[in-house]
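Input (structure):
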């Protein structure tokens, strides 16, 4: 079953509550459906996905990001701890914010510092975090 987005989109908060990050391409929803065969899940996925095209997702960049996580839960996320301790200094536009009970997430910021997208990173490896930030955060956008 190959389906394209119906045009109805949910907010990034609604998608996050459903377990989707907003980073999924609509073709990923089709792949998910092949394995899960759940039409309701497929429908939710399509409301949170981004159309596949070279121009859309790959070219979106942000001025900065906030890595939000609960300090008490850090022990469960060694990859994120490694990033914070050893790699974060390479990304001056990325700030770490400790919020009680928050799952690890990246809050992507626009030029005005407004929240544009929230991405859960619970299971991300350090390399994936580095690769994503190199691609998505403008290198010269550090706000001093």
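Output (sequence):
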């Amino acid at each position: 079953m190959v389906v394209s987005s119906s045009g109805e989109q949910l907010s990034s908060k609604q998608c996050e509550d459903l377990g989707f990050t907003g980073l999924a391409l609509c073709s990923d929803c089709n792949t998910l459906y092949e394995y899960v065969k759940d039409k309701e899940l497929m429908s939710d996925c399509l409301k949170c996905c981004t159309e596949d095209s070279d121009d859309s997702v790959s070219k979106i960049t942000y001025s900065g990001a906030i890595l939000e996580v609960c300090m008490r839960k850090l022990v469960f996320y060694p990859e994120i701890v490694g990033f914070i301790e050893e790699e974060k200094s390479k990304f001056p536009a990325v700030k770490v914010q400790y919020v009680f009970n928050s799952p690890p997430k990246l809050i992507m910021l626009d030029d005005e510092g407004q929240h544009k997208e929230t991405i859960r990173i619970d299971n991300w490896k350090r390399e994936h975090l580095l690769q994503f930030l190199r691609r998505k955060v403008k290198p010269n956008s550090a706000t001093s």
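Notes: Residues 1-6 have pLDDT under 50 and may be disordered. The CA atoms of residues 109 and 115 lie 5 Å apart.
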